[in-house]
Design brief:
Largest sheet: 2 strands, antiparallel
Number of strands: 2
Number of helices: 21
Distance between the termini: 42 Å
Strand order of the largest sheet: 1-2
Order of helices and strands: HHHEEHHHHHHHHHHHHHHHHHH
Length: 486
């Protein structure tokens, strides 16, 4: 072995592998859980605790990840990626906590669920840290394969299997869009590194169908974010998939996809003939209008939250119409708020609806605000936050997004956002109205309101209120992270 080879191996062990510490912790924890499933199935009730501890350990390890690039500049670690990584891990933790009671109640408490969820989180962390398109695609496929399996995890529920098939087929098309877009960009620039591509776009040296390649990339990640017109999969998937998994699915992939979308738009900023701002504005407007109008007529709370998620991604996109360093703060705060309030809502839904094969009717919640006061309060806080009412984190998120849009002259988007927010308040407050103002229409049977699920709901609701009253910490955190890079 010559000196050059030895130094390369040393670099891999001392820097590159350390830079992957969070992903390695999550991946190894998934492997350990699968091994325990095979050799010590009596420990199944401890899998949730082990997976949650691994998630917390991965979050703690972020502080030891060396700043800068690694693996020949294929991935990077910055204060921004660390902040969004924590949001992904937060959503993973809430999804794990919400799952214990559901899996026990349905008789499907197996290690595969926890392992797949941890591998999903590892793929998300890798995706938002990637600086090269093929690395992004590999992370996306690691994530997607686990998501498809989890969507169909409850094999006895026919509607879940149907939803997973739809999700898989549409997800395969989205992956094809991403891969074809990468191929077109590579053909136009001769590179898959985002920084090199940006330089070639700015200098005008890109040739061929680079604009179409960027458009395909935007389409692929808009699918993961459930942005109109790439949203059709979400209502069916949310309704049929296991509810605790939807608490994760509805937020975590959107966090990483939003970061990748920002990088793609930043890369394409210098491309002649490509107006990313106009494209994002169109997607934002369509998502706000379609999402809120369709959510307004839903009777199933999971389908309502699916269309609600479409509208919230529209609000998020407002901050990306005029993309600059100041866009990171509203995006980060909004995603933190959305993670807490949406995952918290699905955690409560997981506990209160014991028949996953049936519709999760909003009317079934009648009077349950008094029967289950703690869960009713948590769901109320999450609904108020989703509606954008103070003093919740949802209000702060929308305020920052609208303020950013006004600062950059996008008044029409702000007015449209306010109008659709008023529409959204109707169906969110309808849930609260049913909880406390309607009499019971059914007596709860077969519920398993466990301490894990209650913890997830309380943590989400409490954090929603805390960040709504004291948002300064989140804002300052992201401002400091941005200053270090711009």
């Amino acid at each position: 072995m010559n000196g050059a080879t030895a130094s390369t191996i040393q670099a891999l062990t001392s820097h590159d592998l350390v830079s992957l510490a969070p992903e390695l912790i999550l991946s190894l924890a998934g492997i350990v859980i699968l091994m325990l499933e095979g050799f010590a199935p009596s420990l199944r009730r401890g899998f949730t605790a082990l997976a949650a501890a691994s998630t917390l350990l991965a979050a703690w390890s972020l502080q030891w990840v060396p700043a800068g690039t690694s693996f020949n500049a294929l991935i990077e670690a910055t204060p921004i990626t660390s902040a969004f990584s924590l949001v992904v891990l937060l959503s993973t933790l809430l999804g794990l906590l919400a799952s214990q009671g559901y899996l026990r109640r349905e008789g499907i408490l197996n290690g595969e669920y926890h392992a797949l969820l941890l591998w999903c989180a590892a793929g998300l962390l890798l995706m938002l840290r990637a600086t090269e398109l093929l690395t992004v695609f590999l992370a996306l496929e690691l994530l997607s394969l686990c998501l498809y399996a989890l969507a169909a995890y409850h094999r006895r529920v026919i509607v879940g299997t149907e939803a997973a098939i739809k999700y898989f087929l549409m997800g395969a098309f989205a992956s094809a869009f991403v891969l074809y877009g990468i191929a077109l960009i590579y053909g136009a620039t001769g590179s898959t590194r985002l920084d090199t591509i940006a330089e070639l776009f700015t200098s005008g040296e890109a040739r061929g169908l680079a604009g179409l390649g960027v458009l395909l990339l935007v389409s692929g990640f808009a699918f993961k974010m459930s942005v109109v017109p790439f949203h059709a999969w979400s209502p069916d998937t949310y309704q049929g998939a296991p509810s605790p998994f939807v608490a994760f699915l509805s937020v975590a992939p959107k966090v990483a996809s939003a970061v990748v979308l920002i990088r793609v738009l930043q890369t394409a900023a210098g491309l002649a003939g490509f107006d990313g701002g106009a494209l994002v504005a169109l997607l934002a407007a369509l998502s706000m209008v379609v999402g809120n109008l369709f959510a307004l007529v839903q009777k199933d709370i999971k389908r309502m939250l699916a269309y609600s998620g479409v509208s919230h991604m529209g609000y998020l996109l407002i901050a990306l119409v005029t993309l600059d360093a100041s866009s990171w703060t509203p995006v980060f705060v909004y995603l933190v708020a959305y993670t807490l309030m949406n995952a918290g809502a699905f955690a409560v839904v997981t506990l209160l609806y014991p028949r996953p094969s049936e519709q999760h009717l909003i009317s079934d919640l009648g009077g349950w605000g008094y029967r289950y006061p703690l869960l009713g309060l948590c769901l109320t806080v999450c609904m108020l936050s989703l509606a954008g009412l103070p003093p919740t984190a949802g209000f702060i998120g929308k305020y920052l997004v609208f303020q950013h849009a006004l600062t950059h002259g996008n008044l029409w988007l702000v007015l449209l956002g306010i109008a659709t927010t008023l529409v959204g308040a109707v169906y969110y407050l309808r849930v609260v109205y049913v909880l406390y103002m309607k009499s019971e229409v059914r007596v709860p049977e077969g519920l398993l309101v466990d301490v894990w699920g209650r913890t997830a709901a309380v943590v989400a609701a409490a954090a929603t209120l805390v960040f709504g009253v004291w948002p300064g910490g989140l804002v300052s955190w992201m401002l400091d992270a941005v200053r270090g890079l711009y």
